[in-house]
Amino acid sequence: MNRLDARGLSCPEPVILIRDAMNSDEAEYQMIVDNPASRENVTRYAEHQGYQVEVEEKDGEFTLNIRK
What we know:
The protein is an alpha+beta fold. The protein contains two helices and four strands, in the order βαβαββ. Strands 1-2-4-3 form a four-stranded mixed β-sheet, with helices on one face. A hairpin with a 2-residue loop joins strand 3 (52-58) and strand 4 (61-67). The chain is globular and about 30 Å long.
């Protein structure tokens, strides 16, 4: 599983990170973001690429579990 930390980054940087990571064609990714806009944009992008996304929130941070 590829783990990505996008805390402190504003869009579109988290989407670019996940897009570049998906070039490796792995089946699972985990990304941490710290704002709702990044959560929504990364989720939308991953789902558009055929992945399922589960989101967990804790202390204002979102962990996105992204799986094919």
